[in-house]
């Protein structure tokens, strides 16, 4: 199908969501839903149904682990009431690491929005009753409105899962770790559906490869490596300056 091929190429060419875009999205989300963005982006690339299905029993802050046990959907015919169901596939049941910096945000969310601390209390729920499931469509609706306001009408909530997979590899994660995080057993699916090409990183990687194999005394090679290292230094300095500024604002 030519149209499907076009749509597939458009998805593959879609750049990952940036940190600035995530921060701007977060400001447009209600407090009770904001954590959903971080969980999908940073914890196992959770699908929206998996996010909505999380219960307090699934959050292990002591060991910094999150258990994916269910998904919220409307059943096999997609016509019934929203309910807790089995995840999309057998491999979707998984245990994924919670980044340490995210733990305080999870604790704060639980403290504010999960008054009933029973194991089966929903992490996200209707604002009317704690045991009411939060429909994925509620978060999707908020996301659609927010993406327009930040100028990224091309992204969906699923883009957070894709960004998780892409950036995990760029930060040094292996394909095996990425597949485990996403709950995939197929390398083809993991690469074809979830990996995005980041052009700048791709260029740097290719040039590094050339540096490894070409004579290191070639002037062109030396200049290329110097340029790359200087870009890396500039990036690190910018990041250090940003973090110092945050510390100063906190003090």
TrEMBL record:
It comes from Bifidobacterium longum subsp. longum 1-6B. Residues 12-207 form the Tyr recombinase domain. This is Site-specific recombinase, phage integrase family. One of its GO terms (biological process) is DNA recombination. GO terms for molecular function: DNA binding. PANTHER family: INTEGRASE_RECOMBINASE PROTEIN MJ0367-RELATED, PHAGE INTEGRASE-RELATED. SUPFAM superfamilies: DNA breaking-rejoining enzymes. Belongs to the 'phage' integrase family. InterPro entries: DNA_brk_join_enz, Integrase-like_cat_sf, Integrase_catalytic, Tyrosine_recombinase_XerCD. The lineage of its organism: Bacteria, Bacillati, Actinomycetota, Actinomycetes, Bifidobacteriales.
